[in-house]
Design a protein that fits this description.
Shape: globular
Largest sheet: 7 strands, antiparallel
Structural class: alpha+beta
Strand content: over 45%
Length: 314
């Protein structure tokens, strides 16, 4: 007998890429913040050849949420099953399957199946989930299609780099400095204004106005996921003109003499805006250098002030 509170929906898209390549992209969850707009961060809790538990932090209808899912990987059938272990209200349960079907050697159909229920089978909550699943599924599939098809072309547009500072202090003090971003306008000269919200412990929304070297001020918004006193991962959602993607993390590793504090960035260059920002003759290499210098300057400034703060307390 069908359950009147259970909703089952399906979304699909055709992708100009081989089915195996599409499967790999979905299977490797570390890439999700770069591929799927709603995803902020994904962590493995457990992992073996065919099953894994992952923690996902993502936005639903503009609100940051987090949950743990179990996944079953079937590379032979090109299927990936998923089920939330503990769902975030108003979701009572949520699961589904990715199904990748080869249409030819170079195209495939991606089907995304969901089944879910609302807490207490509440009709208003079910409507909210309907809208969130529909919006996120469309956005995920569109992003998946775009990113798979452009993967070869974007290889030289996406890059990562890391800055590390050695600090004669405790990981907790360095972590606290980066975690307490609501104090940055007082502590960091390049931050003009800041707002930090943390409605869910460990999940932050950070908005700030940052001063560039030329005196101009730009506003950015990021979601941050915190792991005391070890790591803070983030995804920037309002981006400067030269970037289409900016994710990263701060890490704080104890050493024999203190802490290795690092700031890692992954960036995709927005080629459309290069002429407007850097001039008609500017290249992708120029844009990479410009973006890296700007981000590295701010990261190193923050790490330098964190070093002063932690060493004063050591």
């Amino acid at each position: 007998m069908p359950n009147p509170g259970l909703r089952e929906v399906e979304h699909e898209i055709t992708v100009s890429a081989p089915a195996n390549a599409v499967y790999r992209l979905i299977a490797e969850v570390e890439n999700w913040p770069r591929i799927f707009p709603p995803t902020i961060h994904v962590d493995h809790v457990e992992k073996n050849d065919r099953t894994e538990r992952i923690r996902i932090w993502a936005t639903a209808n503009g609100e940051p949420k987090n949950w743990t899912s179990r996944r079953t990987l079937d590379p032979d059938q090109l299927r990936i099953g998923f089920r939330q272990e503990v769902s975030a209200p108003p979701v009572a349960s949520m699961g589904g399957t990715w199904v990748i079907e080869p249409l030819s050697g170079s195209t495939s159909r991606v089907r995304l199946l969901h089944d879910y229920r609302a807490v207490d089978d509440d009709p208003e909550s079910l409507k909210w989930i309907d809208e969130a699943v529909d919006r996120n599924s469309r956005s995920e599939l569109a992003a998946l299609q775009t990113n798979v098809e452009l993967a070869h072309a974007a290889a030289d547009l996406t890059f990562s780099f890391e800055d590390t500072v050695h600090i004669a202090g405790s990981a907790k003090d360095v972590y606290d400095f980066v975690n307490d971003a609501h104090l940055w306008s007082e502590r960091l000269p390049h931050v003009a204004k800041v707002r930090l919200d943390e409605d869910t412990p460990g999940l932050q929304t950070l908005e700030m106005d940052t001063r560039a070297k030329d005196g101009s001020v730009h506003t950015t918004k990021s979601y941050r996921v915190t792991f005391p006193h070890r790591k803070i991962a983030y995804k920037q959602i309002t981006l400067p003109a030269l970037m289409t993607l900016h994710t990263g993390y701060w890490t704080f590793a104890e050493t024999g003499t203190g802490v290795a504090a690092s700031s890692q960035h992954t960036v995709t260059i927005n080629t459309e805006n290069i002429p407007r920002i850097l001039g008609a003759d500017a290249t992708v290499a120029d844009a990479r250098e410009y973006v890296r210098a700007a981000l590295s300057t701010n990261s190193r400034a923050t790490l330098g002030h964190a070093k002063d703060y932690a060493e004063a307390r050591a």
